[in-house]
Amino acid sequence: MELLLSALRAVDPAAVEQEYQVVRSQSLQLKKDHGLTTEVGSLKDNAKKNRYKDILPYDQTRVVLSLQTSGSDSDYINASFVQGASGDCRYIASQAPLSSTLTDFWRMIWQHKIKVIVMACREIEMGKRKCECYWAAPLQSAAFGPFTVTTQVESRPNQDVVVRTLVVCYQQDVHSLVQFQYLSWPDHDVPYETTGILDLLDRARSSQGAESSPILVHCSAGCGRTGVICALDYIHDLVVTKKITEDFSVLDLVLELRRQRPSAVQTKDQYGFIFTAAASMLERFLQTPDDQLYSNLPEVKKREKKTSAAASSSVNSSSAMNDTYAVVNKAKQPHRTTSEPAYSSVVIPRSNPGSRTLPPSHHYDNDCSAASAAPIYSTVKPKVKPLTSPPSASPIYDIAAPTNQREDPHLVPEADHDYEDVSSPASDVSSFFTPGGIGFNCRIQKPKGPRDPPAAWGRMER
């Protein structure tokens, strides 16, 4: 692990940028080699369910909705199954729901018994709607088709994260889950530090426990920030199961994610952030005793339950509580008076992480109490880019046009050049490299078994 940590620390930013161009180039070859298609997402009836018309789930890995709540329900949702380090279906990578797909979103949650949601975006960013609110206000309920969702608890363990305990009722059955919303990750950018996102993933894994249901991860399109989260959690699982080796390859990992979810890890900055965050993660592991490092593994928890009969009642009661409540270690803060806003300000990511001062105009998107003092929509500024970085030979952000959605008159129309144009190949720059780089003579140690997703993933005939 020490050798891998040294390699991650020593990686050259210029090499990372070139390596990302190889990821883009090889992604097109992946589609050909594996016969990946997007026919279902392209159908006329389904096109309106896509937030962006060129970010469509592959037919071979898409989530197929089987739960029927009305005669007009279809089986389509813009979401993909993604394998974890052990080869099972560890994640569902999804776009954020539209107003027209809120019921479908909850159909997916109910069908797959989702216990943990990781939301890597805010509802509104830079004046553009990135996600419809699919939960209720604290201590209130909201209906989404036949599903009634109640927010039992909403807390702010720190300035970057909102934790919500949600209870959903459908046909007199009840299911509880926990949502972790990360507020300080601008679209197509990266957090200015790794601590926040690594802490968030620790909290999410703690809530997931030994549950076998997938973790639902989404941002706006379900590819950029979502892909980074899946990659970091994948690396974590490789470490705790002792499957990671010194020749581990970030490039191979991202290509494997892109085989299952198009455009996963979307920009060169997001790609480079994986190296930085993985190095921070390994540093944490090296500073953690083995008995604590592996205490969260499902197989370890099962052994503890079998060998500790005397403590079984307390373990069971704790598990029952975990079904409903997220247990977090909150930093001590002064008691908030009733005159203070319900949500604290959010840090704008910046190139200099030394200061975490909070601008007075930066409020939580839906904080009505601060509306008179500041605009209701937050202003998330992208991180300042170093002036010394050479321009890329090919564009990092390509065009993706959003599908026709109901327009909010208060929002700026989507017209930015955000997403990769997966139909036009990037130049193949693999000839720029010589053996020895961390991404090129390295291979991931993959779990044994068939490479293709299991039949339960809703595979279509090729």
TrEMBL record:
<feature type="region of interest" description="Disordered">
    <location>
        <begin position="440"/>
        <end position="462"/>
    </location>
</feature>
<dbReference type="GO" id="GO:0004726">
    <property type="term" value="F:non-membrane spanning protein tyrosine phosphatase activity"/>
</dbReference>
<dbReference type="InterPro" id="IPR000387">
    <property type="entry name" value="Tyr_Pase_dom"/>
</dbReference>
<protein>
    <recommendedName>
        <fullName>protein-tyrosine-phosphatase</fullName>
        <ecNumber>3.1.3.48</ecNumber>
    </recommendedName>
</protein>
<keyword id="KW-0378">Hydrolase</keyword>
<dbReference type="InterPro" id="IPR016130">
    <property type="entry name" value="Tyr_Pase_AS"/>
</dbReference>
<feature type="region of interest" description="Disordered">
    <location>
        <begin position="331"/>
        <end position="367"/>
    </location>
</feature>
<keyword id="KW-0904">Protein phosphatase</keyword>
<comment type="similarity">
    <text>Belongs to the protein-tyrosine phosphatase family. Non-receptor class 4 subfamily.</text>
</comment>
<feature type="domain" description="Tyrosine specific protein phosphatases">
    <location>
        <begin position="198"/>
        <end position="272"/>
    </location>
</feature>
<dbReference type="InterPro" id="IPR000242">
    <property type="entry name" value="PTP_cat"/>
</dbReference>
<dbReference type="InterPro" id="IPR003595">
    <property type="entry name" value="Tyr_Pase_cat"/>
</dbReference>
<dbReference type="InterPro" id="IPR029021">
    <property type="entry name" value="Prot-tyrosine_phosphatase-like"/>
</dbReference>
<dbReference type="InterPro" id="IPR047170">
    <property type="entry name" value="PTN12/18/22"/>
</dbReference>
<dbReference type="GO" id="GO:0005737">
    <property type="term" value="C:cytoplasm"/>
</dbReference>
<dbReference type="GO" id="GO:0005634">
    <property type="term" value="C:nucleus"/>
</dbReference>
<dbReference type="Pfam" id="PF00102">
    <property type="entry name" value="Y_phosphatase"/>
</dbReference>
<keyword id="KW-0963">Cytoplasm</keyword>
<keyword id="KW-0597">Phosphoprotein</keyword>
<feature type="domain" description="Tyrosine-protein phosphatase">
    <location>
        <begin position="16"/>
        <end position="281"/>
    </location>
</feature>
